[in-house]
Amino acid sequence: MMLRLRASTAMRGLRKSTIAATGFPTSRQLHMKISPAVKEALRIGTPLVALESTIISHGMPFPQNYTMATEVEALIREYGAFPATIAILDGEICVGLSTEQLHTLASFGSQATKCSTRDIAAVVARRGTGATTVSSTMFVLIHTSFFLKRCMFLAGGLRMRRGSRCLLRAALAASIAAWKTRWLSRTPVAVVCAGVKSILDIPRTLEFLETYVRVLVPYSSNVALTLSQAVPVVGYQTRAFPAFFTTSSGGAQAHIQLNTPQEVASLIKTSQDLNLPNGFLVAVPNPAPPTTQFVRGTSNIGLTKQTWGGVGRNVAECLHRLDVPVLLVSNVGKDACGHGLLRQLDSLHMDPSGVISSSAHATATYCAVLNSSGDLDVAIADMAILHDLEWDDTAAAKMDTARVVVFDGNLSPAKMARVTRPPQPKSLNPRRLLWFEPTSVEKAVRVTAVLHRVHVVSPNVDELRAMCEALPEDTDRVDQGLVAAARLLPVDTGPQVIRDVATGPYYVKAASVASSMQHLFPSQVKATIHEHPNKESFVNWLNESQTEFAHQFDNDARPLKHKSSPFCYLEQDDTPKFVGGCDDTLAFFRARTQSAPSAPASSASIHANDTSDADVKYDWDLVVIGGGSGGLACSKEASKLGQKVLVLDYVKPSPVGSTWGLGGTCVNVGCIPKKLMHQSSIIGEILHKDADQFGWSVSNATFDWSKLVSSVQDYIHGLNFKYRVDLRDKKVKYENMLGTFKDEHTLTLTNDAKKKGPTDVTFRRAVIAVGGRPKPLSCPGWEHALSSDDIFSKPDAPGKTLVVGASYVALECAGFLKGQGFDVTIMVRSILLRGFDQDIARRIGEYMESESGIAFIKESVPTSIVKLENGQFQVTHTTGQDVYDTVLNATGRSPDVQKLNLDAAGVALNPKSGRIHVVNEQTSTPNIYALGDVIDAPELTPVAIQAGKLLSRRLFGNGTTLMDYTKICTAVFTPVEYGCCGLSEEDAIASAGRENVEVYHQNFTPLEWSLSHDRPLAKECYAKLIVDTTQQKRVLGFHYLGPNAGEVTQAIGIAIKLNATYDDFINTVGIHPTTAEIFTTLEITKESGVDASASGC
User: Which cofactor does this sequence's record say it needs (predicted)?
Assistant: First the structure.
């Protein structure tokens, strides 16, 4: 197969045009549309920064241009001004673009007309789309000068044609035209640019700017006045006038030099106060490059960059990213580079089992020193560790059975002979393909002795010449071996030709993959690349080829609709077949390099083909069902990436009638109120247990439940309002409605309480983020029990409370209620904190029972709840009966999907958990996604937020990163706080084997608890690291029991994520005195049986 690529390698040159006008058009004639946001900014006196739009359409590809445009506008707002990007959309001159309009212009790219002043009328007349250059932007600014009192204008550079009287592309330079000077005198504008193009007549440009511009202004029907108008040229922090890409223009000087933004602002303000008519040109040079002279024998200032490389490693990573099962066989030193490489492989989810750490040599490194032109000056290569590469029996067995074995020239000839040795018996893998990458001229000749066994070699010209010169006399043996090897290549479909016609970075990606496949399978793949001289040529080719496409790709409409790059098609049996773009090309090869389907990969095509109806119009690009943290993060990220987004949030009242506002469980009835209640409990404990020994007398301290609830709810209501405002600012539509699926692209919206709906809306994609709700008790009278949906807003004090459940919610609520002075009992059916480390769970239970004084009813469940006449509740359970003021149910949560009508959309549930079944957040219906507590994932707010952001970036922003649900930190805010990251002791043993797991642990007494006589179990605070002894004692699990667990765990979680080892912890110098320093001094192992009590400082 042959891949043909047609691509642009340079941007089209800027068009030169002349400017002329004889009068000033009216607003009606100009079809002007000023955005409400710009008008409001002007009304309240906000400074305006005008922005040309050609840099968006023609300056860079989509979506980078959209990202740049939004970031520039955000930066302007950050500094207190207001941006007004100017463009022509659907025949209207728009001053100030919305996010959606910016996205539209950016997606048009170079298909939008590049509008100088001469082009405006033509684009407006045909109701087209155009991007303004500097001169046309200035034209618009002058037209709006009646109400644009003071404006700053950001531009790229000026242009003056050599030998021409006037052709200036900067805003003020455009004042050379008579009408422009006339109106510029009424509307001073400060223009910021990087100078003029260095290829132009710079002295003549400055002459016109700094001396005078002679203009003829009509005075009456038969009289004209000749006026002169100078334009001051300011050099920002320089007198040398810059030349766009360079910091100076060869001697040309700016009129004045100003060194700070304040000085520039003062100049503009003074000119305004003096009522001077002229504007200003502020030339800001690009940063000067660093010194380019390399001085030997001493240190040199420069830039450094470190990347993971190596021929074998690079090939392995590329194949892994193509979803090809791959094993990297290599050696690394026991040094920082070796540790870093192992962490990098782990971050890519690559199999590290073939990499052996050795203390005999340093990790292979290549250090290159490049000059300012990017050319190599000198380099040092230390590859000694690879010369005598070692591997274990497992790696050897995998090499014998692998479909392809790639080795490079860093190996010694003896190791190459071992790698290429036929498998024993030979029938084990007769189709094995051996590929040699020479690496360098010197190393290429090492393969000559075993070249007859090699099937594929990928040398450059110099390496090929060296190999040929080093071949032995009996070349027939080599030729016969190569011929025999060629017969082993798969030829089931015959040669195929992939042709790719393309432009831009995705073309480069597709071309690289196709070329690699040609190297790997030369008898099957032939890649042909077509490059256009520029991007416009490629677009023209697409447009001109429509008739040919219709005939060539019979019965396939996709080529006619394909507008992006690259354009890839297959030539097989003289019948062309359209492949598609970059993602389609990768998928094409991926399908042909795998013997069986593999798990979804972290690539841009992870959600490919989730919608196949690009031409169908929907009400919304994305509908997010659920206004919790994950749904809001997903919606705002999607809107930021240019999508039209609707968020639906509807809270069904709890059995006792509790409802809440926007923000989901965490904000309203979860993390936020729980942590505030916990803090209240901590304050109470400090007052009653610690204050006296620290010198404070607070014997009359009392607690007011109602005041606490009022304060907490006031804070939450403020967050609800902020979330609504934030959605509005992010251009996300919010509806307080319940969404029910009608089909896979339609939702019915209702709100019975507000008598709204039903209303149907359509969507291209949907995200389900409705979270979960508490499971009810299964005994008579269950409706009398409160849940976490109710306790934080309960108006009256809970009094004597029974907490049913052993989850972290149950223990946290029981803990803060006890700390606030209430009588609390916990009823537990079996174990505490199921799913957490059980050694830690046992310690928490003992602490809560002995230190906090919380009663436990174990191995029991409620059998009935009866409300008594006095308002109390009589609870009967399997081991007894008692009366309580409040019963709090915290036995778990279930996904809130009952009213979504998922069957109508074809969304399947996991029958075991009842949660939505997803693969990388994608449900069984390809265009519908789910995240947060509604799927089988950690039920944590930060997890949902991260998953939501990453999902939107993959769907709408060419993102490639998948959500990693491993090594996620969590904290449990029980009376003695608990933080953890990684595996529990039980899971570590199950994963790595008991014989390979070692546990370092230590009890300690927090210094802040050391003075109190009322904390007998303070010495039972505890820390442990669980390590894998077969992986250099890599830490599998981190567990901490003590004050400030969340803060400690968050910091150490970074180390766990980076695959820290036990030595990394021990070699870190701790901060003294802190509780977290315990992790830098852990020396006692559980296996030793030594007492783990702390011995003091």
Answer: FAD
